[in-house]
Amino acid sequence: MRYIKIIMLFLILSAVLVACGGTTMPVVNEGDVLATMVAATVQAALGEPPAEVQSAATPVPDSPTPDDLVPDPAPIEAVSPTLAPPPPAAPAALSVAYIKDGDVYVWVEGGSSMALTNVDDVVDVSISSDGQVIAYVRDTPFDPYTYELWAVNTSIPTNERLLVSYPEMDALKASSSFPDAAGLDFDQLAWRPGTHDLYYSTVPRFEGPGYVPLYDLRMVNADTLVKATLFNFGQAGAFTFSPDGAQVVLSTPDHISLANADGSNLRSHVLTYPLVGTYSEYQYHPSPIWAADSLSLRVAIPPEDTLAEPTPPTSLWYIPVDGTPATQLGSMNSIPFDWPNNAFSPDMSYVAYIKSVGDPVNNERELHISYADGSNDYIFNAGTTLQFHSWAPDATRFLYASNAAADPGLYLGSLNGSIFLISSEHQTMRQIEWVDNSRIIFIYDYNGAIELRISDQDGTNHALIDTLTNSFYSYDFTQ
After folding, report:
1. Which of 331, 324, 263, 345 is nearest to 301 (CA)?
2. How many CB atoms lie within 10 A of CB 362?
3. Alpha-carbon distance values, 175 to 165, 198, 204 (Å)
4. Residue 38 above 70 pLDDT?
């Protein structure tokens, strides 16, 4: 049986890369209306007939508030950061940055697309929260392993400028633990909310396969070009900003830490755990999710031995920002290697996960919904090779996919039990993201047609943003 599970590991990991990715809980009827609109819009965009509403199970108790699921010792006080961001400025409209033919483009809702560069070698983009600046990584043509970080304004004058040069990256590589790597690339790019401070981490690139993040954290201001090293190699982790931009969480394969956005007030190892067994060279790091008030986080930690029989549960944790230790909320029995990075709903009230049932060779799965502590667990749907994708911002609906021959597709589920088929060709939809409570943005890749699309809730503003011809499908948006 252990060998079967090892085989299933590789099948599951392959499916995750290809795909998107009881009782019911009552919500307002508006969710049904919006869900129907989303389904109709995307169906029309994909040239498919609209799907019929299916119904799921039986009503349940009223949903909990996030406070019901949080341990109740002393109240948690906000940390006073030494670097407070200005109030976030919002762009005038939804703005999307993307790559086409190796160049940076921007599309603003209500307007049209505009090329911002003419370099032919862009491989990644990230747009600031105010929509005014786009950062982009160039893999320069004279050497496939030379990487530079640039910025460009989204309005005239565009003022293309170099933020981090190849010589700087080469010097960093020489001081890293991989001085003989083919090159040093940018791993994560993220704008600090409400600012033009661009944070990044690095990763060595090799002539063969291999991914070894260096877990550093550096910053460059896109206006002044002032630079800072907040944490050197091995001192940080995969990073995510708090909603208010004041703090950052750092996740590594064996611990989670917190810090102020300027690197001060490090709260190291607020949660530690054994390395999650991946049975590969890849080291897994969890993905903590911030609460909307920036005062706490939630995270799901898979078991150490993911192939043990029976499979050990995945633990659910609450992390306060004051540096006190994390508290375990509960657990769930998720499928091995289908790690629930976005299991928690945005309001922290619910958890969604996939559970394997029956003989592993049959790949039968169940989509479960529970409260954030794992209680009140129920089966939302069952089928072959189900995969959970993501929660909508309103935390009442979610996307999931089925690869079953009988009912393949991307589905929109709702806590009230309703299910809508968005597309029966879900594997043609890549990099799906929620724009807001009623719209999704995605790459459409079918029969040689590669397009960046956004679907509106009422079908009157469905937008083909642009037709893409490059193999790099990076995009980012803000509103």
Report:
1. 331
2. 11
3. 16, 22, 12
4. no
Report whether 300 contacts 330 (CB < 8 A). Answer: no
Kindly report the number of other CB atoms within 10 A of residue 420's CB atom. Answer: 25
Residue count (the chain) = 479
Region at 417 (left for phi over 0; alpha for psi -120 to 50; beta for the rest):
left
Token digits for 431? 């990099």
CA gap 305, 336 in Å, rounded: 9
Q: Of 265, 266, 251, 169, whose CA–CA distance to 218 is shortest?
A: 169
CA distances from 109 to 41, 398, 465, 474 (A): 17, 24, 9, 18
pLDDT over threshold 50, residue 30: no
The whole-angstrom separation of Cα 191 and Cα 186 is 14
| Six token digits for residue 353 | 């996960």
Q: What is the pTM of this model?
A: 0.83
Nearest to 110 by CA among 100, 99, 95, 125: 95
CA 401 to chain centre: 16
- Tell me the per-residue pLDDT of 43-75, one tens digit each, with 9 for 90 and over: 444 444 444 434 344 334 355 554 555 544 333
Q: DSSP state, 344?
A: B
- Where are any strands of DSSP class E within 192-283? 197-205, 217-221, 227-231, 238-241, 247-251, 255-260, 267-272
Who contacts 225 (Cβ-Cβ below 8 Å, separation ≥6)?
161, 163
Please answer whether residues 163 and 135 qualify as being in contact, where contact means their C-beta atoms are separated by less than 8 angstroms: yes
Give 150's contacts (C-beta < 8 A, 6+ positions apart).
117, 135, 136, 137, 138, 160, 161, 162, 163
pLDDT at 84 over 70: no
pLDDT surpasses 70 at 196? yes
Token pair listed for 32: 């049904």
Asked whether 302 and 335 are in contact (CB, 8 A), the reply is no
Rounded CA gap, 97 and 7, in Å? Answer: 39
- Domains plus CATH for the chain? 1-83+298-446 (no CATH), 85-245+467-479 (2.120.10.60)
Identify any residues that bridge with 466 across adjacent strands, giving them in sequence order.
452
Rounded Cα gap, residues 306 and 282, in angstroms: 14
